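Quick bug: Uridine phosphorylase output formatted oddly.
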Amino acid sequence: MSPIHVRGEPGDVAERVLLPGDPGRAEWIAKTFLQDPRLYTSHRGLLGFTGRYRGVPVSVQATGMGAPSASIVAEELVGLGARVLLRVGTCGAVDGALAPGDLVIAQGAVPLDGATRQYLEGRPYAPVPDPELFRALWAKAEAKGYPHHVGLVATEDAFYATTPESAQGWARFGVLAFEMEASALFLLGRIRGVRAGAILAVSNRIGDPALAPQEVLGEGVRRMVEVALEALLEV
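Here's what came back:
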């Protein structure tokens, strides 16, 4: 079937793809980091660009918010030839050691979302990233000396349903932060035989009245993308 949502053609999408949720961030990444970025889709506001990073073809494709949208995009990207899917997004911290702007490299994702559950037909499962991509992300973050944390995240559906109290309940099981796409991407990576991973920038602590100041979050996002692109060259 031709892709319904990611309106690309064979050859439009590179094998290595960054996946921000926000289409505005997708455009910023493409124009800031890629050489000669070209828009290949804007259908439904899911902006997708392909260019080159250090001479290597790389695409940046917005997924929208949440695992249902991200799983649709991921499925269609694989059909268009993508072989490495790397989420670059933000997260809400629950571990007290995380500060706004810090990076989180997901070692696994607790699947609290419905999309992962539907794919699994209710089976228990532990979604984890591709080990080579995970190792590359960790190594690049360490080499650059950026503040980073490695461990579990939780993938949720209902952004406003999570309370500080419920989030802290997960912290005692080792969950560092909450986000909305990683578990489905990790699972699809296994099902479809492609590499999948996630690196995140902390936007706030769950329960904070506001997100981090723009200059703090913006620097965290810049560092996240820099690490992500360097890691893509290793896989």
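Actually, after a second look the formatting is fine. The chain has one domain: 16-233. Closing.
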